[in-house]
User: Fold this.
Amino acid sequence: MNDSLAPTDPPTAGPRPGARFGAWQLREPLGSGGMGEVWAATRSDGLHAGRAAVKLLRAASPDPAAAALLSARFAREGELLARLTHPHIAQLLDAGIAPDGTRYLVLEYVQGERIDHWCDARRLDLPSRLNLLLQLCDAVAFAHANLVVHRDLKPANVLVTDGGHVKLLDFGVAKLLGDAPDELDLTRQGSAGLTPEYAAPEQITGGAVTVATDVYALGALMFVLLSGQRPYDAPRGNAAQLARAIAEAEPRRLGAAELTSTFGGDASEIAAARSTTPQRLRQALRGDLEHIVAKALRKRPAERYASAQALADDLRHFLKHESVSAQAPTWFYVTRKFIERHTLGVAAAGLVALAIAGGVAATLWQASVAREQAARATAEARNATAIKDFLLGVFRTSTIGAGKTTQDTTARELLQAGGKRLLDDAKLEPGVRLELLTVVGELQNNLGMFDSADPLEQRALALARSVHGPQSEQYIYALVGRALSLTQLGRAQESEALAREAIAIVERTGQQSLEGYAIALYRVGANAVQAGELRKGIADLSRATAAFEKYQPRHAMRSIAHRWLGNGLAQLDDFGAAERELRRSIELSANQVDLRDFGTGAGHYALGQLFARAGRFADAQSELTQALAIFERTMGPRHRTTALVRCELGVVLHQLGRAAESRAMLAAALDIAGSDTSRQIGNAMDRVNIALAQVAADEQRPDEALTRTAAAAKRWEAQGGAHWAATLVAQGEAETRDGNVAVAREVLRQALPILDTQLGPNALATRQAQVALGEALESDARAADDARLAFASALAAGSAASPTGDWLRARALLGQGRLALSTDPATALRLAREAQALVKTGALRERQVQAQARALEARADAQRLQ
Assistant:
């Protein structure tokens, strides 16, 4: 490559479409810069299809010295790019000199948009913007590790593809660390092509260029991406004033200036482009982010981050709610970050006690100051003191007063004591009490302390209404929060009423942009799906996903709404649409900071359930195994969620013929479910009972199967609907296996109309009920016609093809065959063979059907020969 880039005189003629450079043919110009032009090009040698960006050295300058400088800089760019092979750097593919003397570089073609425009067009929130910046930091750190300083980092040189992948371009003024003096002259001359808005002070004053120069540009780029403003208040277009400001003035604080964009747009537009409101954006830009940007923009290079990697490390710490190096590690700061990281509860009791006593007070003080006007700062400071005093009092009462050491006090005990004191303490100012009731109630719910949290949330709801008013954001938030919690207490109707009240207030007052609106729609939809009112639930969940997309596109619960929508569609056997929603849920979760792991794990769990329902057991095992690994890593091996996954996975392993693994998985699920304090219908214990009943029935243990299905059916009876009917079908099948056909017929005739009404005659659950009823009736000669009708109804129903549908069809054919055996053995033989042909996956239930089909075939053959 070095030989091909030897000095030469550039040509005078400009390029044209169709011109060839090596194996590449120019198509259309993409742009031009200080050294040359960039063209889109395609392969012209016929070896393979391909597209690239061809960069051509600008036509000859009348000044021989300038021409030589441009040629040398162009050669240097090729040499530097040859060092850099990284997924976030546009790659050098080839380089050379055309027959007419034109130098060219062939670069990876990047189909993308500059990073600031890409973020604004998609209304990316701050965490998503920071994740893109992390990709850029990785690219810059890689360049630095290869002794290359870019020197011209700016939005135009950072493209983002449709898939969200960052690509760093244009190393035309890049510098090699440790350049010799003549090479320094070359790169110093090249600094004329720099963009002043993102230049570091040392570039303005002619100082030494180091990795800290790129760190400064990253800080300036971060300032623009997060706030929509530039760090300096110089008039746009006045390069001299801007250069003076960069060299002499201190940059603005990220969270201090008014949100009036130097690039156009008012505060509302800037905030909307970040999927938030101006008030929330100002609050988010303060604190850690402000300190990180300020450190990157220090005037003295030695005071900045030591590397792009160090800056990236602080951004990652910020996204994980961990302490950042740009903030002084004060006690209040460290404890506040600790609490932010552990909202699901922690077991190290002494540390929790200190964190809650100091950290939550600091967090609530910052949140309240951000919400209130400056005129109320003194009152808010008093509130902060009251919060701190209250929590310290709880800590002392739970430790010293009870004769315990700090290490003896658990998080549960501390929260229990805090909740009790909140209910009894009449001295707290109402606003302070509301803040504390909300935080302690949420923490108790996260630890599964649902009964303890209930009175706290009840009091918080009343206070939110009295303190802030019946149409306030705080009251709506309290309504939605309580609606979510009541489902865990099995009080679905009350949950529905509160969520619908929140929806009505929002729609009446035009506050749809509040996060509570989409969450309330999700809750009523999820309640309906849980109750078996699937079409109603799907309609509400569709409204919820639309509201999230329009008003809260980056909200962590958006993925949950898509997951519940997928669950509802799955229960209506719309497997294609359900899979699309569930994969969308996983995709959204993967791009979140909050709830990323939980959302991804829950998405894989739901996909596993979908595949199991459809009879795709190998696919189900893959998804459920991923879900279990995620939940055990992030929530612990004994969290109630792991019981749900283990339960489903145990049944799948059973169907795959892995009996020992299945028994171990279900035993662990049963053990964990025993400590589940949720009274929600369909909790871990309910689902374990159903799973164990299925396995017991297959393993010829009818007594256990009946006991467990009856227990589950009794629990679901209070809720009614399709879920209850499905447990009745399981009970009916178990009764038939145990010879109790009269009881089986009764419960199955109870289930069928519910399933037919709620799910429709084509639903797999309805068809299973029809098949089960036919099997319960066929042993009674007087009910043979009713049995034939049940089997025929199951066969007449049409639904999307699936292994489960084929299994049910095979069972119905076998039922018809058994009924025909005594009078028409030829028909019985044909039906047995048709049934065998339908079941192909090798699952345990299909092997059972094949065995029954072979037995029927043998009997039919024998009867024909008589």
User: Anything to note?
Assistant: The chain is about 65% helix and 5% strand.
